[in-house]
Design a protein that fits this description.
Number of strands: 10
Strand order of the largest sheet: 6-7-8-3-9-10
Structural class: alpha/beta
Radius of gyration: 18 Å
CATH topology: Rossmann fold
Order of helices and strands: EEEHEEHEHHHEHEHEE
Number of helices: 7
Length: 232
């Protein structure tokens, strides 16, 4: 954690509505949330609470109907679509339940892929990808395809990929959902280590056992923040 708190993510008055035929669905009804640099929090809530919608807005994958989203002091509503894509790739690292690895690329190529969009030279891409995989215990699996890796190994590759552009925020969506309990625990220990290193980490989950590992817990209900508490 940094000695002086710096806000890296701020949501103010976030509302999100969808029109489904003649029915209007208010998924988020006024979310205020501030995340400091180096903070580790979990967002939890039952099905229909607005978790998925909030996840997409936190990750700049969707835009709110009302309200302001700021990342590292930048109001993202002021960005064009191209600027937003560039900004998102630099500022936010994603870790998904389904891994989302490219099947035809090996582990090294999958991790190097995000850097291609930022004109990073090939040699540097490979060096940074190798370093990221090494630190996650995947140094012996650099040239394996996703189909040749276990679920836990694939998630380690996905975590390495999320780190390679050195984003301000790591956003994990049900990161252990496709893993057995032992492998899932290994992945959560990696998150604990990243948190101790000062990474800003937001985990979206339905599993209270996972959420309890975070120092801060944000609970959603019916599109609103019901609780925002410290776990420890």
């Amino acid at each position: 954690m940094t000695s002086k708190s710096k806000v890296v993510l701020s949501l103010e008055g976030i509302k999100k509505s969808y029109q489904m035929g003649e029915v209007r669905v208010d998924a988020l009804k006024g979310i205020n949330l501030s995340v400091n640099e180096g903070e580790h929090l979990s967002i939890i809530g039952p099905s229909g609470s607005g978790k998925s919608t909030l996840l997409h807005i936190l990750g700049l994958l969707d835009k709110p109907t009302n309200g302001t989203v700021s990342v590292d002091g930048t109001d993202v509503s002021k960005l064009t679509d191209n600027q937003l894509s560039y900004f998102r790739g630099k500022k936010i690292g994603f870790i998904f339940q389904a891994f989302h690895l490219v099947p035809s690329l090996n582990a090294l190529e999958n991790v190097a892929l995000p850097m291609m969009f930022y004109s990073v030279a090939k040699n540097e891409r490979e060096q940074r990808a190798k370093k990221a995989l090494d630190r996650l215990g995947m140094g012996e699996r650099l040239y394996h395809l996703p189909s040749e890796l276990s679920g836990g190994q694939r998630q380690r590759v996905a975590i390495a990929r999320s780190l390679v552009n050195e984003p301000s925020i790591l956003l994990a969506d049900e990161p252990t959902g496709n893993l057995d309990s032992k492998t899932g625990d290994e992945v959560l220990k990696i998150f604990d280590e990243l948190s101790l290193e000062g990474k800003t980490l937001i985990v979206v989950t339905h599993d209270m056992n996972i959420a309890k590992r975070s120092p801060r817990l944000v609970m959603l209900k019916d599109g609103l923040v019901e609780k925002d508490t410290k776990n420890k």
